[in-house]
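Study this pair:
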Amino acid sequence: MSTATETTSKRERTILYVVSVVLLVAFLIGGLLTYHSAKSSREAEQKADQLIAELEAQGARTPSREQIIQVLGDDGGAVCANPNEALNRATLFGQMANGAAGPGMRPVIADNKVVQGELLIIKVYCPDELAEFQKLVGDLNLNAEVAGE
């Protein structure tokens, strides 16, 4: 077994270490400055209050204001990321199945409450997506009329 001979000088290694530490600190500071935690903003609070009022008007159970703010923020979070995208539609349709897996999985005529909550969230947080989403759920065979139409 042979031992490798060090070919860099101590000065070169010191410069490398200093540059690495400076870059690490710069990235750390940059990350801290751009990090957006789930802070409660006035807009998020107003939208959460509006959603709670909409849910109560529908007679639905309402989560706490803090929970809504943490999950949906001020932009609707994952619900408004693109509610009419294929993967989001598949997730919604997966909720309207008999609960089996694999070959036993069958669609069912679901209760309209399955889509009411999502419609209300879209109505409050991303109303520009509402018409297209209403068209999507309006074509579904549900037990009662779809909320929001």
